[in-house]
C-alpha cells in the first residue's frame, strides 16, 4: 500500500510541474509576441508615409 501512495505523490508532483511549465511557456510566448509587435507594429495602424 505504501507504493501506491508514493506513486500518487509523484503523480501530483508531475501535475504541479506540468502546470508551472505551461504557465511559463505561455508567458514567454506572449512576452515574445508583445516585444515583436512593439518593434514591428502592424501597418494597419501605423501606415507607411
TrEMBL record:
Membrane-spanning intervals of the chain: 12-40
InterPro entries named in the record: PSI_PsaJ, PSI_PsaJ_sf
Nucleotide-binding is among the record's keywords: no
Membrane topology per record: Single-pass membrane protein
One GO term describing the cellular component: plasma membrane-derived thylakoid membrane
GO biological process, one term: photosynthesis
SUPFAM superfamilies: Subunit IX of photosystem I reaction centre, PsaJ
Compartments reported by the entry: Cellular thylakoid membrane
Main location: membrane
Keywords recorded for this protein, A-Z: Membrane, Thylakoid, Transmembrane, Transmembrane helix
A Pfam family the protein falls into: PSI_PsaJ
Family, similarity comment: Belongs to the PsaJ family.
Protein's name in the database: PsaJ protein
